[in-house]
Amino acid sequence: MKKKIALLLTMSLTAGVLGMMTGCGSSSEETTKESSVAESTDETQTSTIDVSDVEFISDGVLTMGCDANYPPFETIAEDGTTPIGYDIDVMTEVANRLGLELNVVNTGWDGIFEGIDVNYDVVCSGVTITEERKESMLFSDSYITNYQTVVVPAGSDLKIESLNDLDGKTIAVQKETTSDIVMSDLKSTNTIDVNIVQNEKVTACFTQLTNGEIDAVVCDSSVADSYVASQSDVYEIAYKDKEEAEVFGIAMGINNTKLQAAINQALADMEADGWLEETRNYWFGDDTE
Length: 289
Description:
Residues 61-287 form the Solute-binding protein family 3/N-terminal domain. The protein is an alpha/beta fold. The protein has seven helices and 13 strands.
């Protein structure tokens, strides 16, 4: 099925428009897919989920916070303004099924959760659901599963069978992500002696790997898969921790149970009719869960 998406900072969505997706393309620094509008040949009619009793930052608008520096989940297109990526597609379709417009607020990862119920209704930005985070916010059901993954230069003789094998190595992570937390815990507990370079952007991690400044990048499997798929002559996956699955969810205010229920219904419908699977395959490949 051909896919389509209207990629605007504020997107006007109607209940009859489905399967919105971004098209193909890439930039020299980031692993992205540029926007295009293609006609769907297989549209399915759905009914709008009732959100009349849900309060939003702006009436008739679902406002989403994200850090658009995490391709392919979210990044900025080559026009310098348009947000694109898997999370953008997911939230566009969620808003569509709720009968709302979508407004995307691009903000830094540091402090992103403090903006919930203040600057935006939800955060959808490759957020791992953790018990600690669930103490201060609600989460939707998971919309994608990830694993901590080690990426090395293509052709590297570095053998990694667990994260502990990064002992004595220099690695890069995006600051304040789950990868940063996991690797920092291994270091702080003296499990391994690893030099951790923390970057504000995941793209900087891969630039450092390309330049030979580090031995490996540790990141989410979906990000790793996308980089390797588009640049297999530059990067390869050395290890994927399949024993420790991480699930991503949409974060919202701790008391916003009505919005949580509505979003969960939209996600369930998107999973049932194949929209989520097709979109995951488009951005990450056929083996993404």
